[in-house]
Write a structure and sequence with these properties.
The structure is a single chain. This protein has 220 residues and is of the alpha/beta class. The chain has helices spanning 19-23, 25-28, 32-53, 59-73, 82-89, 98-107, 120-129, 152-162, 176-185, and strands at 5-8, 111-116, 138-141, 169-173, 188-192, 208-210. The chain has a 6-stranded parallel β-sheet with strand order 3-2-1-4-5-6, with helices on both faces. Strand 4 (169-173), helix 9 (176-185) and strand 5 form a beta-alpha-beta unit. The radius of gyration is 17 Å and the shape is globular. It starts with a strand and ends in a 10-residue tail after the last strand. 36% of the residues are buried.
Length: 220
Amino acid sequence: MPLAAYVFDAYGTLFDVHAAVRRHAQAIGPDGQAFSELWRAKQLEYSWVRSLMGAYVDFWQLTEQSLDYAFQRFPSADPKLKKSLLDAYWELDCYPEVPAVLRGLKERGARIAILSNGSPAMLASAVKNAALDIVIDDVFSVNAVKAFKTAPAVYDLVTTQYRLYPYAVSFQSSNRWDIAGATKFGFRTVWINRYDMPDEYKDYGPALILPSLESLQFGI
């Protein structure tokens, strides 16, 4: 059966989460890469913990809280950079192949959507900054269900809105844990393994593993 919709995770899949720190790499200093990786790791950890506790706050608050933690762990980074880093997060770079891939899929007649932990305002800003608003049909934020991935209610946002069975949706994410959750829900999943990471959650494996989104434009 032809796939009716291609749905993409946002952060790490379409948008480079480390772009904010790279823009200020010289000011942050030699710990920049480790600082950025910790910021991202804590951002995700906080989303999982809050989902388990049933204590939802929007992703922007978690982004700020995790940045505060990163500054505490890396005293070499000047906390005065906080505002600049947060401002940069609203305008993250998309990966180079993203615009052409999304245009190609849309030209094939598929619906194109984002399904993300991000808040509606964060996602709207990122999409507009990358000029993807002309190709993306819908942006689904977890804010609608007040729970983060991998809660099944998050993935159900797409199937309910589109009135599709899960197997008619191709879901792309660079986050292996997200792929596991989407696979269990019933999506056809594609893991974008940009950094050649080892596989996990092998009982919920993806249909495909790709090094980037580029091959998707050929209908893979």
